[in-house]
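User:
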Amino acid sequence: MGSKQGASLSRFEKSAINVHSRENIIIRFWSASPGKVWTSWRLLIFALTSGMWLFALAFPKSLNIFLYLIAAALVISVARLRTLRHPLPKNKIYDVVTILCVIIAVVLLMFVLLLSNSDFSLVLIMTNIVMFTFAVVLISHFDTKTTNSTSRGISLFILILCLMLGLVLFTVFFTASYLPAAQLGGDEAGWTNYALTYLREGQIYYQFMGAQPIPVTPGVGYWVVLYAAWLQRFGVSESSGRLFIFVVYLLGVGAVGIASWRIFSSKRHNNNNEIGKLAGVIAALIMASSLLVHEFRLVRPEIALIIPGAFILCLYFAETRSKWSRFIVGLGMGGLAGISLEIHAAGITWIITVAVILTWDMLSQWRKHSPFLDMRFLGAAIGGVGVAILYVNLHILILPDPGYFFSNLNQGRGFLTRIFDLSQLLETLIRYSLYAPFELIAAGMGILGLVVRNTLLDRQLLRFFAVTGISYYVFVPDASKYFVVFTPLIVLSLTSLIIYGFQGGGDQVRFSISTRGQQARIMALIALVAPLAIHLVPVISLENPYPPHQVGSKDEVLRTFSDSDTVIVGDIDSYWSFTDYPNFYSIMAEIEAPKSIENINTHPYGIWDLIEPDVVVQTNPPIFVQIVPHLSRYLVDMNYQQIAVIIDEHGIESNVYLRPGYSPSSTIPTQNLHLLGI
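Assistant: Predicted structure:
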């Protein structure tokens, strides 16, 4: 009877039953436990990311479909997981902010896609965004309870992260041949020339750019002395210089890790040393893996600005109760800020930041009817004044004409000539998106996390971000070139995001070391480490990543018929073959010399009148096309004789000219040469 009734159901009734069954499935999923939602999400992400990789190989132009599918799935899952929080947030703004993070990430991703025009990059970036964003959501949900917050669990997690950090440092050490995109023409040779000039003459100036001897070039710090001592010990080559920068990079990783450990374990924050240690290892791993940092991993000084910046933050958040301890902290902050100017002129950012932040705190205390004079402010003032007096004596009064210091910085370096140039901020974002697009998105999420959590630490870090940004873009010329100065703040914001997610509730954020929280944090850190691995693993050299410089065939020919006293003008890349020639000059001297020599343009041929080169080597095609006509006119008017065309191992031709009356020290070899009449 029942079967007959079932068989006699109308098509409409059967459809209604099917719809009701589907609704039950949807309701069951929507009301599922967090664990089931997490399992479902893992399967979904596995399917979608696998599909992305397969389609990337077969149909690269179809990636946008998966872009929107993943974005939609992420938004739905975020909305679901956020409603599972316990206790439930009184304000749904946290749900909105989290979803907006995903939307903004997708929009920025499309912007990066337009810049890079690379489908493969799109796959990598999108995968990282999915992993990182969802990991932060899981941290926000699963680690709001205090279960399983055992010291043993945290120690095990720290051990895993230390192994990851060791692998990253191993990879970085054995990739010295990797050339960052930020490499500028000749900068590594230029800073090495500063160091060698100091070793030879005790003066720091741009000798191979035709600059006149001077005790110390305005804006150049005495960090060059340390670099000179390094070169004296380990030899002069690009590899030796990059090994020096690797040591500086290691110090930066350690400084950021120590700062994060002290800040997150302070009583002002949570008074938990275990969490502080975890934060320190996470910060060190993020710093070591930062593609932004690695774009500055070349022989230039600004990467070292990370070190004083990290310790300034560490001192600022230090627990100081007595007046004398606060005074010492302030003294250290002021001293470090001043010393940063010995690293790079962009160090003025930290000087202004320390002054403004401590003044802000002092005025805040005054409004609360506390003593007006803050001992930290007094210590910073004394430390800053002491370093300033030392700087004036070592950099200004030492010059024959002290006024040259200011004129050179203003005219040659553009100091204080581009105040409030907002185009530099846009240029910084564009550069960051080109160097490390996913890291830029993650950094934005880290700053947004500071706003959402709104703890005392978050508010203070946001204040540092704001003051540092304003100081940097007001006082630093060509600001888009040195923005690695923000690295300690970016790393601390990302560390806070990975530890606490988007937890709200003011100063009441909590931390646990739950299994799912561990998984989420490892997922987020893998997303941050993956871009570095993709860039560096293919170029690992285990044999000898820091070999001595090998003289190329072209430069070897030049050395055979010249001696160390010969005045040679050549391409800047040849400098590494002639570091023992104190009279080697770069063709670029025509551009650089007028910045440091007044009235040089009144000479008929500019800098070439002063140098009077014996040998001139001009690559064809020239590396710097815009200055070849000036030198060419000088060679013609002064009757220089073209004696040969050198063909190097890459098939590149270089024209060789001799000054009239110059006699080579030996017979010019004929191998790899086309002789033209000597």
